[in-house]
Specification:
Blueprint lengths: L1 E8 L6 H4 L5 E5 L7 H13 L3 E5 L17 H21 L4 E4 L3 H9 L1 H14 L4 E5 L3 H8 L3 E7 L23 H14 L1 E3 L5 E3 L4 E5 L5 H14 L3 E2 L5
Parallel strand pairs: 1-2, 1-9, 1-10, 2-3, 3-4, 4-5, 5-6, 6-9
Antiparallel strand pairs: 7-8
């Protein structure tokens, strides 16, 4: 058995170098919600040093709110927003001798597309047109996964080590007090449940079935490095191999 452990990076946090040894995939911010060419280059270099798969992490053009505020764009603008960011990272990765492996939308763009098929389809089509061999990371059971599969794009169903869940399998909104998991033991318990039992327990105690191809740790989380280290050790203890998701 193996699992991918991914982390959102290149977002201006000081812990990217500490996190990289413990993960297998890095989602690198492309400048719209966070980051710039310099941070992209530094994060790509770190990923190449640690043999970590490189992915693009495009978000809404909203640095003020870190891409976590919902925005309303026509579908053709969504295609442009995603394409511009992915191409920017793709060009840098190629120039530095690497290969772009996946795309994972960020923040509000991710959560909105998880529920909105039309938005999810616009993102999936943008990724497919760039490179139909890219893998789209999307919330397990979401419209993002469905829309990508409908056009033949490879997908990785994503679950979260540091976020709580609603009864319908969506993430608890960050504005709610119980949205984040802040205890490493709670994170470890949820990770094992998701990998071994293919389910997660919602904040209301409901057992929700999920698919688990890749586990996310948010790089801007207060306990990101601790969580990454502990989950890495947990996987070793249970003889679960850590490797990037490449069908």
């Amino acid at each position: 058995m193996y699992i991918d452990l991914n982390c959102d990076m290149g977002e201006g946090m000081a812990n990217d170098a500490e996190l990289m040894p413990f993960i297998s995939s890095a989602n690198i911010a492309c400048g719209f919600h966070a980051g710039d060419e310099n941070t992209m280059r530094r994060t790509i270099e770190l990923a190449l040093q640690h043999n970590v798969a490189i992915g693009a992490h495009p978000g809404f053009p909203d640095r003020e709110n870190f891409g976590r505020t919902e925005m309303d764009f026509p579908e053709e603008d969504i295609v442009s927003i995603v394409s511009e960011q992915v191409y920017q990272l793709l060009d840098l990765v190629f120039a530095m001798g690497g290969q772009l492996k996946h795309v994972k939308p960020h923040g509000a763009l991710y959560n909105m597309s998880a529920k909105n098929y039309s938005l999810a389809a616009a993102i999936a089509n943008a990724v497919y047109e760039i490179d139909d061999q890219l893998v789209l990371f999307g919330l397990s059971g979401s419209e993002s996964i469905r829309a990508a599969k409908d056009i033949g794009l490879q997908t990785a169903s994503e679950v979260f080590a540091d976020r709580t869940y609603q009864d319908d399998g969506t993430l608890t909104p960050r504005k709610q007090h119980n949205a984040l998991i802040t205890n490493d033991k709670d994170a470890e318990q949820q990770v094992l449940q998701m990998i071994l039992q293919k389910e997660v327990t919602s904040i209301n105690g409901k057992t929700v079935p999920i698919s688990c191809d890749t586990i996310c740790i948010h790089g801007d989380g207060e306990h990101a490095v601790l969580f990454a280290r502990q989950i890495n050790r947990l996987l070793q203890k249970h003889q679960i191999d850590l490797r990037s998701f490449h069908p």
